[in-house]
Amino acid sequence: MLKYFIVSVHIILALFIFQHGFLLKRQEIVQKSSCSDAKGDDDSCWMKPQYKRVVLVLVDALRYDFLFPSDHCGEKEETKYCCGKMKYVSELFNNRSLSIGILIADPPTTTIQRLKAVTTGTLPTFIDAGDNFSSDFNVKEDNFLYQAKESGRNMTLLGDDTWISLYPNVFSRTAAYDSFDINDLNTVDDKVIPLLQDEIDNSNSSLIIAHFLGVDHCGHKFGSNHPVMTDTLRKMDKMLENTIKSLRDDDLLLVFGDHGMTLTGDHGGDSTQEVYAGFFAYSKNGLIELPKKAIYQIDLVPTISLLLGIPIPFSNLGTVITSMFPENLRESAVAMNYEQVKRFAEVYSRQNNFAELHNYISREANTMDEQLNSISQIQTSLRVAWTQFDNSYINVGILLLIEAYFFILSEQELTVSIGVFRSGCILLQCALLWDNSKSSAPAITLLMMALSVSCLSSMFKCLANSCNHVVGQNKITPNYIANWGMVIHSISMLSNSFIIYEAKITRFFIQSVLVWSFFSCFERTKRNIKIWPMLKSILEDRKFYLLILSLCFLRFESYFHRCREEEIGCIQYDAPLVSALLPKDTKLHRIVFSIFCMIAFNYLIFGKVFRNEKPIFEKLAYPLILVVSCHMFYMTSGNNSDRANWLVIINLVNSLIISLFAGESKLYFLLFPIYILLGDGLIPAIMCLVFILYSCFQIVPYDTLPPVISLFITYGFYLTGHSPTLPTIPWNAGFIGISGQLALRVLPAILILSHLNISSIISAVVVFIHEPKISNARCVSFQLMRSIMTCVAASIHRRHLMLEQKLDRMSGDELNMTDTDSDAEEESGEECMSDDDGIALETNDQNNSDCKESDNDCIVMTPDLLEKEMKATIADVANVLQVPSGMCRILLHKYKWNKESLLERFYEHPDTNAFLLDAQVIPNVTESSSSAQPNPAECDICCVVCELSGLACNHRSCARCWKAYLQTKIMNDCSSEIECMCSGCKLLIEDEKVMNYITDEVTRAAYRRLVISSYIETNRLLRWCPGVDCGKAVKVPHCEPRLVICSCSKQFCFACGNDWHEPVNCRLLKLWLKKCSDDSETSNWINANTKECPKCQITIEKDGGCNHMTCKSSTCKFEFCWMCLGPWEPHGSSWYSCNRFDDSAAKQARDAQELSRANLQRYLFYYNRYMGHQQSLKLEGKLYATVKSKMEQMQQRSMSWIEVQFLRKAVDVLSECRRTLMFTYAFAYYLQKDNNSQIFEDNQKDLEMETEKLSEILERELENENLVMLKQKVQDKYRYVEHRRKILLSHCQEGTERDQWKYIE
């Protein structure tokens, strides 16, 4: 026992050492800023205060879209109860009294890390998230609260007591309340609201902080889309209304969230919903216009500091929000911010020997733009520095685990010498964890040497033991399959796809071992029995039914599985989801099913398994089932948390007492506390887990149990509704049976860990009490094998993991929230050509626009999904109007599938019948009231006497004529809105009638396609993807010109359906394409594809993307530019003017013929360059094959896959720049000459020149043998080219927003 205790300590310390090198933690600098560091113009401390008082209202988990007005929320069901509910804020926004912005919260998005970032301006790391379970974590770094106190300012805190833990003895007045009880939605907020009002009216504090918790707690308990969230947001809106009305003229109000939340209310930092928080600033002095691009949360720190006239905290990395300062102070604010960041960078680089920072520190930045750019570069450099891993600690941790693994397998006894050695290793491990400075290098070296020797010694003993075991074995046994299954599963950790589908892999191995174990056991005992007696024996064997049921229960994992976004085709069922997210009927059904399962399981346990147990214990289980059932109902109602907590205590105490007196069923009674911990949705999963484990012990041979249990622990993790992602951590488990006001914060952490590791806990308990005893060495070794491979995989793939990605992922998606004007839509003749209405909230990267619902609010839909959505819309409206679904589809088609417009017109119309008659869905009264014809009768069309049928208008014909008429309309006319066959009758035929008459499946399918097509073509929020053979459509929340990317990778503009054409708008592009298609103004193929050498006049055809041409004539060899036909030498200098057209010839024209010729020449100038870049774009598609070959060669020369991706990135950037340049010439053709057009052409020139250089590098210099220099050169070039492209597009966008462009049409 002592041996395994020492080895366990060894393994735990090894994992801590690995974590120390893997999970990032930056070094804190406690130096403080002072007034002497900077002086204002009037010798004030840094900057003169701009406001006498600042009121910070922090609404915990205030997601950005919670602030949006209702007309910007769209029709998304997941924001029905949370978007557009803050009416007063919406009113201020619509009146242009405030501007709404987005704050980006750097992960992890936990409260302590967000408060620390908002006050210090620093970036926390993921290992800091554990501080949330500590009640005495103090901030030692410089912060604006400390600076305000040092300057003699009074500060008031109201709300979350986490501020007191972080900053003790700082506030002049506090009213702090415990924030850990997520079940308490109103207590803290209800206490803070009147205190905030009193503080604003009567306080002399310069800084008032009010931290409200209701929105966050509501999200954790009910999710973001719940009626309770609506009430909570309205309460916050009322609070803000009273606060704003009470402000003084010299007050500044800042309202923001510390993070966002997902639909389930979680906020680990894994998605944009979790890291995007809302923000607005308000002052009675006038509108404070916030940047349209999302800003980092740490940017609040220097902004608040300078607005209050106090020093910026020393460790701050945020950038001042310049729009919040008067124009005459913006340069001064940026300069002070730049000097502060530079001072911090100097100290940090000196203490950490970070040479890269010297490149930015040594440069002097004089202008505001240069200073902002330097701050950004320093910030980026430090972000990269804080994502560096300590490889020495990682390697030591892995080697420690490997040594422990071979020591366990060697089955060595714990002698005195081994005990002394292992104790020494433990002391060295403790020394490494205690001292992480450079002085730990000798300890690392000594430990690595000792571990290597011990590892080799244990390996030799393992080889000797394995040889003895292998001798005499000549067949495949269940133990053989289980061992190799565990080995394969451990190795699969190195593959990302195997990790994603780990549940299915472990299920396959467990199924294989169970089946093989059963039949191998049967083979040993029933070897000489014939087939029919053998089948009879199988059917009489109890293990056979256990096997069948186990195989069925193993398949149930998909019902409890939590889908990851990487899992293609994964269906998310309701069982593992939080009950607050489900409809009431689903909640009730889930609870009833769980109660039924508990009763049935109790009956089976005592009727089939514990037959010898006393009957009293079976009856004692039913009161416990009743307690669990009551707890489920109380938790679902959401208003009886105190009673639910008492039920947890009653359940736990009674379960423990009964288990003490029970016999063989004692473990069964310990399941009842687990039922409550996991919740009603996962109770059946626990029963499946227990049954499968019981079957394994009954079917699998004794020596095969250790690897099977190891596989089972992993499988049980997924079976109990877990997934290895941050959003699926069961935070609600931390409040089961306890109050959030409990001082012992470690208890919630224990409950959460117990929930996550319930399969491990159950398996460990069963192994511990099982008779005969299972080999502890094998059980530990298999678990250790998986831990080793997990650590190895994590160290190999660490650059792909979220730990690094999240720190610099915030280039993000483009979040444009624009309003659409339907009148403008009709006038322009386009589907949607609306302008920006002022709430365009963008992030930094405009190119990352994946068309995913979770990221960019647009959805790629298949025809099946379209039909399903269309039918759902029809059903909704049909229920309101009480009309048939076919008639309802026609009405919706008339109103372009705008439900609100249809219902509004329907209820506004004085005569319902007249409304339906105008819509052609009911017949004219005179037609429908005509005398009925006899039946059978003569058909008016084919003159055959037969049964006649028709529509409500009483125009009847035989079925054959109706069928022929409808087939003609569908197959020939391609019409989905078909009028009555009678001439002059305008009644439209309903879908049900059409389907009744048409029996041909081909025609029926064609009609369904026409209906879906009409649904898309008339719905302004839908558009077919123009990709070849794609067949999908894209749905967006707002109709606007925007880039959308279909799942087939086709990129196009939603407004016009053409390829994405930034910077030219849809209207000008339409004119340009029409002009290009006119043969009278285009040159022939030769002029477009060949040119003559300027020197020797030989005709040359371009066969590559590069515009640097060399004449192939042996007597010429002249180098020239394909675009302008001029010498190539000036194209790399400042004399580059290839892109600029000189229209002096047109101005000197004397007559119409010369003017027409000049116009044609001007058109051909832009057309040739447009087509030239288009041709280059097509030809450079060959580069992908070239680059792929080069990447394979580089990987063969010791470079990893991720290290060679720079080449693919370079080609991607080159293609994007070619596409942008192509459309800049269409834009420039219609651009009127002025100063703005000159700046545009300069930007165009810079981009074109650098694009040519990048193209030349990729086409001519890839054979460079020095891979390091090649990588550096390519990376530098494509980054600069991408930077120039962003500058050009930003200038075009700015000109459009300010209406600076003047066009010639």
From TrEMBL:
It is a multi-pass membrane protein. InterPro entries: Alkaline_phosphatase_core_sf (IPR017850), Ariadne (IPR045840), ARIH1-like_UBL (IPR048962), IBR_dom (IPR002867), Phosphodiest/P_Trfase (IPR002591), PIG-O_N (IPR037675), PIGO/GPI13 (IPR039524), TRIAD_supradom (IPR044066). Pathway: Glycolipid biosynthesis; glycosylphosphatidylinositol-anchor biosynthesis. Residues 935-1142 form the RING-type domain. Its main location: endoplasmic reticulum. One of its GO terms (molecular function) is zinc ion binding. The chain crosses the membrane at residues 6-24, 392-409, 440-460, 481-499, 505-522, 588-607, 619-637, 643-662, 669-692, 742-769. Residues 813-835 are annotated as: Disordered. The keyword Glycoprotein applies. The keyword Ribonucleoprotein does not apply. Residues 820-835 have a biased composition (Acidic residues). GO terms for biological process: GPI anchor biosynthetic process. Keywords: Endoplasmic reticulum, Glycoprotein, GPI-anchor biosynthesis, Membrane, Metal-binding, Repeat, Transferase, Transmembrane, Transmembrane helix, Ubl conjugation pathway, Zinc, Zinc-finger. GO terms for cellular component: endoplasmic reticulum membrane. It is found in: Endoplasmic reticulum membrane. It holds the Pfam family Phosphodiest. PANTHER family: GPI ETHANOLAMINE PHOSPHATE TRANSFERASE 3, PHOSPHATIDYLINOSITOL GLYCAN. Belongs to the RBR family. Ariadne subfamily. This is RING-type domain-containing protein. The lineage of its organism: Eukaryota, Metazoa, Ecdysozoa, Nematoda, Chromadorea.
